[in-house]
Amino acid sequence: MITLDYSNKVVLITGAGGGMGRLAAEKFAEAGASLALSDINYDNLKSLQDTLPVECFIGQCNVANPEEIERFTEQAYQHFGRIDVAINNAGILHPQNKLADIAIDDIDSQLTINGRGVFLSMKYELQKMQQQGSGVILNMSSAAGIFGAPGASAYAAAKHAVTGMTRSAGLEYARYGIRVNCLCPSFIDSPMVDEFDKNSSVKKDRLAAANPMKRLGTMDEVVNTMLWVCSDYNSYMNGQAIAIDGGLTAL
Ligand SMILES: NC(=O)c1ccc[n+]([C@@H]2O[C@H](COP(=O)([O-])OP(=O)(O)OC[C@H]3O[C@@H](n4cnc5c(N)ncnc54)[C@H](O)[C@@H]3O)[C@@H](O)[C@H]2O)c1
Fold it and tell me: Keywords of this protein's UniProt record, alphabetized (predicted)?
């Protein structure tokens, strides 16, 4: 039987205060990992830390802020002496609109948080991983990072950037024992999509109907994939954009 054992691993997760990042923290903890968790929302992180049965270093950190990201990565590295796995998960959505109607603030925040946030996270993580001679990075892209997303072109722009950075870094760092991949989920039943459902004329049932499997994905399905993708059982996958989308992008 295969068991995913992270008991000798340090796993860093951004955006760990809520949604899939929080569930990832819980499941990696169940698998024995020591955790370095960041989020812009400190209270959510603290309440999570109090429930976790493993050593857990937390830091409030806005992924759009280079100083905060550099400091958190350095502190996590000093605390544990290594970073084996980094999951760059923090991200935001913007209100649904056709491109000409998207606010300029929305394209700016998409590129800054979803795009540059992943770049900055990888920049400092890769420096540490190169020093230690190994590491695994998993970025959260999206189905919108590999195909068009009507109503979400700014989000798609930022997520395509994540996919492009992932493939490029995967090629650059393979020789240093570092694997870099990204996950590309379609709509997942998470707090982000609850918010979308509340504020958009397109409701969850319509999103579900548009998927070949006629349902949304679950947060468990995404996090279970993270556990496997980042594990030693998956040691030859590198530079890939991994769709987890009920087959949506196979169309
Ligand atoms: N839910 C989906 O359908 C879906 C699909 C594809 C990809 N994704 C991506 O997966 C990731 C997680 O999504 P989710 O559904 O769990 O979202 P969520 O909104 O439930 O959680 C996102 C977390 O990121 C944190 N965050 C937001 N901005 C931040 C910032 N600037 N710095 C640090 N932390 C910040 C939030 O506080 C929150 O804890 C995101 O990158 C998202 O784009 C989600």
Answer: Oxidoreductase
